[in-house]
Amino acid sequence: MLIFLGCYRRRLEETMSAETASGPTEDQVEILEYNFNKVDKHPDSTTLCLIAAEAGLSEEETQKWFKQRLAKWRRSEGLPSECRSVTD
Q1: Where along the chain do its domains lie?
Q2: Helix axes of 45-55 and 2-15: crossing angle, nearest 10 degrees
Q3: Does residue 1 register a pLDDT over 60?
Q4: Where are the coiled-coil regions (predicted)?
Q5: Is residue 38 a contact partner of residue 79, using CB atoms and an 8 Å limit?
Q6: Which of the pair, 39 or 36, is modelled with greater confidence?
């Protein structure tokens, strides 16, 4: 399965349009937002790979989007930008 996902990811990266290079499309953002709000704010590498394949983005682009979206969410919740241990 992982081999298939790797091949699929390479094929997606080869066919990415200039539209994707400037940022995700509305449809891609909808997929990313759904996964952020309903599935997981901190996806593991396997989940991230599946989300990237579903959205038609590279894993790197998807990871970057989740990192930026998490920072935005933390600001909106009044939380510090980085999560630390309770004992810090």
Answers
A1: 26-75
A2: 40
A3: no
A4: none
A5: no
A6: 36
Which CATH number is 26-75 given?
A: 1.10.10.60
Q: Distance (Å, rounded) from C-alpha 8 to C-alpha 36? A: 22
Q: How far apart are CA 52 and CA 32, in angstroms?
A: 9
CA 29 to centroid of chain Cα atoms:
9
Residue 53: both structure tokens together: 């394949």
Measured at the CA of 39, the angle between CA 38 and CA 45, to 5 degrees, comes to: 150
Q: Which structure tokens are listed for 29?
A: 């953002």
Tokens 């399965």 found at: 1
CA distance 1 to 81: 35
